[in-house]
Amino acid sequence: MDLNEFEKMWNKLGKTEEGATKCYIIAAMEHVNGNKDGAKMAAMTLPKPHLNKSGLPGSSEKYLLDHMKEEGGNTPKSYLGGTVDNGYDYSYDNNITALPQSKKGDKESKIFIQSGGKDNPTPVQLKKNKDGYWKLFNTSSIGTGVKRIQDDDF
Fold it and tell me: I need a labelling partner for 55 at 20 to 30 A (CA). Which of 24, 44, 79, 87 fits?
């Protein structure tokens, strides 16, 4: 995905909590896949205080994006349809769903999303900016590991 395609998607989806979260996860997946614009994509989904002077994800956010490269990127894949059973096969067409225990608000929300590689739901904290876009204020739980594919060839 190129940066222009991502920006169009962000403009369409970023005005809902689920859409903004999906955009962040797709940006993480693009970063994992080596897209040179993956960090720029992620920056669109983050609030300004979480960006460095160049407008890219700051050190802790960059660390998390880099950390998601481990295990072949299975962590972000797990939010886009990937599971242990399907070898973390994923598609950008899959939607992110906020689970019933989510607490949505007009300006701030804490949603819980399900990963196909984790037993427990993942919390995501978001705030709506003046333009109506939801920005992810806490992404650390998204980047926690997922179940490993068992390799019986040892």
Answer: 79
